[in-house]
Amino acid sequence: MKNKSYFLILILLFSTDYVSGQCLEIYAIRHAEKSENDPKDPDLSKKGILRAESWVKFFEFVPFDAIYTSKRKRTHQTATPISKSRNLEIKEYEIGKEEEIFQKELDNQSQRILWVGHSNSIPKFVGRLMNKDLGHIDENNFGQFWLVQYCKKTPEKNSFQIFQLP
């Protein structure tokens, strides 16, 4: 509960520059736990399905404008419960071309997007936005979420926070 209260305070603090449509909040999560049923493109495990469903409650107060996933089944399956709860279509992105999507969302005056990615792709794209080397997410860590503020016209306001959930 303490993490959720802190999270809501951060949303309010980040939100002041969003009225103008010049900034974008990116809520990035890694796909949930995967099964071993397919080495190339596995489904979520039972534990992963439960985690995907728990994200709905965690993000219940965040009014997403869009939801993006990679082309992998596990990212789609992680985003589906949130997508259904919000009646939002899941859109796919191509890894390495994230900035094109951000520009499109800024042009559409979107304010908040959910981004579901992978242990190596999330730190890479956040790092490109922040001009930092952020390494990677540990392969066994499925409870991390990144809150990114990206302001195209005022890059000095760009920032990110990493939260670790159980």
What's a concise summary of this model?
The chain is an alpha/beta fold and 166 residues long.
Summarize the structure in words:
α2 packs parallel to α3 (73-86). A six-stranded mixed β-sheet has the order 3-2-4-1-5-6, sandwiched between helices. The N and C termini lie close together (11 Å). The chain has a single domain (2-164), classed as 3-Layer(aba) Sandwich (Rossmann fold). It has five helices and six strands. With 166 residues, it is α/β, with parallel strands linked by helices. It has helices spanning 2-14, 46-58, 73-86, 98-107, 121-130, and strands at 23-30, 66-69, 90-92, 112-117, 144-151, 159-164.
Q: What structural class do you assign from the helix and strand content?
A: alpha/beta
The name of the CATH architecture is 3-Layer(aba) Sandwich
The helix tally amounts to 5
Order of helices and strands: HEHEHEHEHEE
Widest beta sheet: strand line-up: 3-2-4-1-5-6
Quaternary status of these chains?
single chain
User: Please, how many domains?
Assistant: 1
Helical proportion? 25-40%
Rg? 15 Å
Q: What number is the mean pLDDT?
A: 86
Largest sheet: 6 strands, mixed
- Strand proportion, as a percent range, falls in 15-25%
Low-confidence stretches: none
Bulk shape = globular
The third-level CATH topology is Rossmann fold
The level 1 CATH classification is Alpha Beta
Say how many strands there are: 6
**CATH level-4 homologous superfamily:** Phosphoglycerate mutase-like
